[in-house]
């Protein structure tokens, strides 16, 4: 049976069990966090780098985790911040707008193996990438991870009301994008 | 030849004549339609046995083991998962029904490709398990190359811009260096200042005012309106200037 988060945190604090506990945490959350990051950064190599950087930060700061929120909420917050930071750095390094139709992240989606612009699931990804970064995070957390607004508020450090408005707006924009293009 | 039954009766008479006198009556009963259903029940049991669903030899022997406290937390764990998922799925879908019903028709399966066995070994513990060492941030080689190229281009542009905007006089020794005006005035002699003023500022022709060839009418016009003090002051200034000039001469 999988250990609970509390048990893993206790193990992590013991030097001889630290690595084992950390490995367990990775295995427990790697897929959820990977896909959350990938939906934001698109490219697998970028997602892999971001995910590893994220877990490195977790390794360094888990001792100071105060457990005032759920472990997975805290992990999601770090993953989201790392992804948004990566996108910000990429935007600064490149003079090309990341939202351009044939450049940036949309270009990366179209370069993905198996891309088919006629299929709805690919159109959905293009529509999601047309959103501003933070709104993109709001939409994917709600739509794919089905995160409650209360938890999302702790992940994104934004009020629930603002998140609801952002998500509602995002859903409308995405629907409009798919139906009218 | 005797019938078998007759043999049995003859044998019983030899053994116990009193028993042989009673008629053989079956006192046991069977359920209704027992014999009509018996064949079907036997065939059903045979079929179950063939499918491997063997009845336990003994209900009291259980070879499986359970973790301690399994059933104490089972209900809570299941409720937590199912209620949370169901409620949220329902809540999220209901929300989308109002906002963007079309999105409900799209599969949530991610179309992105993933390297084989990525989750089975690609992610490992950090390069160093020693907390005293600072773990490296992983940056791809191609990004280093991009930084190096960008830095080189910027450096070349900066040097070129610097060379093009340099003033040419820096290398021309014939161009006089800029001089501080305050210093120059302080160092100038009185004669140099007077010469400069005489050349620069139009000085009224005093000699013309007292030129004996000028008509009295013209002179009267010039000094009309001036007070005696003004005239005396004017004459004194110009007389002082000419005395000084004579002294220096």
Describe this protein's structure.
The complex is a heterodimer of chains A (181) and B (249). Chain A is an all-alpha fold. Chain A has nine helices and no strands. In chain A, α6 packs across α9 and α7 crosses α9. Chain A starts with a helix and ends with a helix. The model of chain A has no long low-confidence stretch (mean pLDDT 86). With 249 residues, chain B is mainly α. Chain B is built from ten helices and no strands. At the A-B interface, α2, α3, α6 and α9 of A face α4 of B.
In short:
With 181 residues, chain A is mostly helical.
Which SSEs are present, and which pair or pack?
The complex is a heterodimer of chains A (181) and B (249).
Chain A lengths: L4 H8 L5 H24 L2 H18 L9 H23 L10 H8 L8 H10 L3 H11 L5 H8 L3 H20 L2
Helix pairs in contact in A: 1-2, 2-3, 2-4, 3-4, 4-8, 6-9, 7-9
Chain B lengths: L3 H12 L1 H5 L12 H17 L19 H30 L41 H25 L15 H7 L2 H11 L5 H4 L6 H8 L4 H21 L1
């Amino acid at each position: 049976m999988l250990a609970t988060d509390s048990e893993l945190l206790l193990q992590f604090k013991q030097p001889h069990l630290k690595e084992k506990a950390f490995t367990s945490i990775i295995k427990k959350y790697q897929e959820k966090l990977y896909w959350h990051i990938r939906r934001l950064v698109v490219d697998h190599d970028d997602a892999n780098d971001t995910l590893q950087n994220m877990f490195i930060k977790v390794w360094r700061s888990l001792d100071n985790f105060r457990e005032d929120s759920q472990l997975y909420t805290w992990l999601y917050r770090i993953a989201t911040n790392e992804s948004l930071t990566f996108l910000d750095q990429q935007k600064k390094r490149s003079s090309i707008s990341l939202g351009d139709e044939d450049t940036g992240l949309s270009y990366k989606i179209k370069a993905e193996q198996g891309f088919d612009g006629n299929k709805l699931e690919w159109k959905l990804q293009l529509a999601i990438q047309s959103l501003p970064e933070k709104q993109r995070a709001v939409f994917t957390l709600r739509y794919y991870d089905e995160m409650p607004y209360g938890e999302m508020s702790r992940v994104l450090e934004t009020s629930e009301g603002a998140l609801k408005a952002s998500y509602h707006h995002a859903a409308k924009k995405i629907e409009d994008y798919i139906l009218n293009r | 030849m005797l019938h078998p039954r007759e043999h049995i009766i003859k044998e019983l008479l030899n053994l116990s004549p009193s028993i042989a006198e009673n008629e053989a009556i079956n006192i046991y009963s069977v359920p209704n339609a027992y014999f009509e259903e018996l064949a079907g029940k036997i065939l059903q049991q045979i079929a179950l046995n063939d499918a491997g669903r063997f009845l336990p030899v003994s209900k009291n022997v259980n070879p499986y083991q359970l973790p301690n406290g399994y059933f104490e937390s089972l209900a809570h764990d299941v409720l937590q998962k199912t209620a949370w998922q169901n409620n949220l799925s329902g809540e999220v879908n209901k929300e989308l029904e109002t906002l963007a019903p079309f999105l409900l028709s799209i599969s949530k399966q991610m179309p992105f490709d993933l390297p084989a066995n990525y989750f089975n070994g690609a992610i490992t513990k950090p390069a160093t398990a020693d907390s005293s060492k600072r773990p490296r941030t992983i940056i791809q080689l191609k990004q280093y190359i991009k930084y190096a190229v960008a830095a080189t281009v910027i450096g070349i542009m900066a040097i070129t811009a610097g060379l093009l905007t340099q003033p040419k006089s820096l290398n021309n020794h014939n161009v006089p260096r800029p001089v501080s005006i305050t210093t120059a005035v302080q160092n100038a002699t009185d004669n140099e200042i007077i010469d400069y003023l005489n050349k620069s500022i139009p000085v009224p022709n005093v000699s013309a005012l007292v030129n004996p060839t000028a008509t009295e009418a013209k002179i009267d016009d010039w000094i009309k309106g001036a007070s005696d003090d003004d005239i005396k002051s004017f004459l004194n200034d110009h007389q002082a200037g000419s005395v000084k000039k004579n002294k220096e001469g």
